[in-house]
Amino acid sequence: MNDWIKRALTRKRVQRGRVIAEEPNDKLVLCVKFAVSMTLCLSVLEVAHMVFLGAWNSEVFAAITGLSGTITGIFVGQKA
User: Fold this and answer.
1) If you average pLDDT over every residue of the chain, what do you get?
2) Structure letter (DSSP) for residue 55
């Protein structure tokens, strides 16, 4: 899991005909891994809530949406 996150966050630029890869900070990779794992856990929690209680929980869905937006923002912001 670490490899694809680090590869996705690596910034590549061309300088004088050479490609220079700037790897992300290890703390950023760790934070993204944590955010992805929490999004997956919340998704499982939402599915379990719907199966056992038969109702939609908007607070859990709001947390999933917020984490997904944060992850997307990190990937877009790191590449720019």
Assistant:
1) 88
2) S
